[in-house]
Write a structure and sequence with these properties.
mainly alpha
Length: 69
């Protein structure tokens, strides 16, 4: 399965609001734990190892300010 980077969220603003709301009233450690759990749940949903590795590379490149790995 190839990594699809095209926008696919049908309601991106609602998703962003829910993501922010997930963090409401959490301290830093709880917020990081919630992010980690969300990442693992979504990784399990994707399932394909190569797709997940592509996503990891793209996420790291983005955090470093690179458009692509």
């Amino acid at each position: 399965m190839a990594l699809d980077t095209q926008p696919r969220l049908t309601r991106p603003d609602d998703f962003y609001e829910a993501l922010i709301d997930m963090h409401r009233d959490l301290d830093e450690a709880q917020s990081q734990a919630a992010n980690a759990q969300l990442i693992l749940l979504l990784a399990n949903q994707i399932g394909d190892h190569d797709t997940l590795l592509s996503a990891l590379r793209l996420a790291r490149a983005g955090a470093l300010g690179n458009a692509a790995p």
